[in-house]
Specification:
Chain lengths: ~350, ~375
Amino acid sequence: MASLMQTDATIKKNYLTALKEAIAEEMDRNQHMICMGEDIGLLGGAFGVTDGLQEKFGTERVIDMPISEACIVGAACGMALNGKTVMVEMQFIDFISCGFDQIVNMTATYHYRTAGEVAVPMVIRGPAGAYGGGALYHSQMNEAWFCNSPGLKVVCPSTPRDAKGLMIAALRDPNPVIFYEIKELYRKREIEEELESGDEAIVPLGKASISRAGEDVTLVSYGQTVWQCLEAAENLSKEGYSAEVIDIRTLVPLDQETIINSLKRTNRLVVVNEAPMTCGFAGEIMARISQEAFEYLDAPPMRVTRMDTPVPWVKPLELHVLPSADKITEAALRVCKF
Amino acid sequence: MATTTERQPSEKSRPRDLLSPQDYQEMLAQLYLARYFDVRLIKEKKRGRLRGTLYSSHNQEAVIVGSLFGLRSDDWISPIHRDMPAFFLKDARAGWRNKERIGMSIDEVCGQVWGRATSPGRARDNWSHIGSTRAKIIHSTSMLAGTIPAAAGVVYADRLNGGNSVVLTFNGEGSTAQGVFHEAINFAAVHKLPVITIIENNHWAYGTPTELEYSLPDFARRADGYGIPGLIADGQDVLDVYDKVMTAVEHARAGHGPSIVECKTFRAYGHGDHDDDRAAKYRPAKEVDEGRRRDPIAIMKANMVKAGLMTKADAKKYAAENKGASEVHDTDFPEDVVAYLTEGVTSALKAPVPSAEEGAMWVFREDA
Ligand SMILES: Cc1ncc(C[n+]2csc(CCOP(=O)(O)OP(=O)(O)O)c2C)c(N)n1
Ligand SMILES: [Mg+2]
């Protein structure tokens, strides 16, 4: 019995291992796939997502790049012109701003401006999110910049299975994908789960999932705050409200249908994102719901986001500006009691 | 470490020594083609038949022709705003009228200039922002120096695929101050990628002179910082450009990595046609007169006369040199040059404009 439990436990894998497996499996399957990033080869990546990859696939396919985010993205684009699929690691997603022009002007528009001649299969991925004391430049969720740049898909998983499945889907997608990995979830024991391999593991882009079913209010989120929504749902149940939690998983393209279907039953909406409020993705979801599903709403929707501030370093300050399960519970109660 | 002076081709054996008399004729013809294309567009624009800004390549044709002339059709290029003739001149040595050649046709290029559906990008972005994976031309954005990383990536992938193509990127001297210029050349140098950076040093970046752009007497010396060769060419002399670029190409093809080739030239008019009047104010007239004195067509003719490939009488025949766009006429160009471009213009004017709905198409590839 004891040994059986042992095996059981080893089958469950964390979020980081899920990503690692997805990348390694795709490198194996697709001889035209290349990985580029800073310290991804010899070191195996700052967090270890690419650990062992260079050993297995060689220095030509797993490239340790100079600290040049713009060049990394641009060169990946050029490789795509010559038939390659490229995984680009941003050491922290915060540094993506240094490659911004190459992403939004060069890469995102390539298919559009060539009238479909050139597709750029590229996944730009990196550790994202706050709550770890990373301070201003190692805590960002800057996904809104890219959602506002047509031609990019934007993904943010909250579980190991989704991390693996969405990564495989992203690496097989002919379009550039910006992939937000929640670094606070990388090694979180509580969320470990069993993983499939290859086709079986795929989670298609553009499909939301219902993380918890409920009847009274819909909490919509992605990434780290999905877990806060689940905690809030627990709190709410103690107050007598049943909350449904939707994890959109993909921001672009957005699965609006799953949200609207939920609202048809709950008629109440709270949207949560970790990024700042103004022009954040929560606002986009609220705008779409207001336009497409106003008749199902019994209360004004609310959003819970970071304050419109950078992410400060020291813990009390950091937590002060960020969303939390308590803040979500409070917002949901207001919506429920409206 | 290679220095700027060490890498200059020796006087004894120069790449041009392997060119045939026909090659010289062809180079001259391409100079006429480039000049006539520019002049024709300036005239069409004045007639109000064109949209967008025209960045004249007048007086800079030798850089384009001399750089492209020795390339193979599997080599890549990435031209910028001032290089419109490069799009149809790449691979033109295979015969510009040869419909089978891989390069971009004059119909495609004119289709682009006139915003027609026959443009390779169906006229979705303007002027020089086209390309072709078939013709091996990287599609640029407006962001100066922005395609050098892609150029490095293209040849990296080509090497992995078992090829040995090189890539030429064209850049104004002003765009060399961009961060991505450094990032990409550094990467190419580290991996010895066959990336040749052509600097079209026309001494002005829009309204800013070189002394406010960088602090080197010769830009080519920047190459020393990357441990790669930096060559200097007389950008008015197509043969000198050919020599220097081919030296860099051979160096790259042999696996020795990138080079910078600085071609010294001069911008004939304003930055763009919107700026011609203002340019007269910020650029001293004396400097402009001096800068334009050395016409690449005249220099090539003189070289051909010297080499016994042309008589003095023949050299006078098509007198397009040393004339501004308003002073030069169709009769100053070879008939086949005028005919070739006229066909392109005619085909563009007849071609359909893309349908309005296309504006919302192709944001994503759908066959996921
Ligand atoms: C990143 C970027 N900044 C500014 C501009 C606007 N711009 C277009 S051309 C130009 C001058 C370029 O000068 P140079 O590189 O010397 O080329 P030239 O026009 O002289 O051939 C400027 C400032 C631009 N296209 N891209
Ligand atoms: Mg210039």
